[in-house]
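The data layer described in this paper is built around a simple, fixed record for each protein. We quote a single record here, exactly as it is kept in our systems:
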Amino acid sequence: MLIWGLAILDILAFGGVAAALGWKLYTTRDRGFLWLIVAVVVWPITQIGLSLAYGLWVDTIPEIGTLAPGEIVSGALYIFDLVQRSLLIVGILMLYRGSTSLKPKTDVTTVSLEPSPEPST
């Protein structure tokens, strides 16, 4: 029962982080938040799916040299963690720069309908 409660709390916290980052991206249109969503929401879901897939066929992985199948899976999971940390660093650096808005940059100039004054000589 405790495991299910913790799993539900984890899912709720995961959803809360996803909603907060999504809302911040929506309000600021900053690309750094998009990278953080990929690092904190999309990549862990991908990692969970791949971990489940590895668990299903871990017995079919042959030994490669001196590496056992479990070591190969552990190495792959460490690589997934490294990719996630890299995505987080990219998102944080983009937020640090601050000029990465998704809003289109428009140059608005005012147009006057009155004739311009004659230059004086």
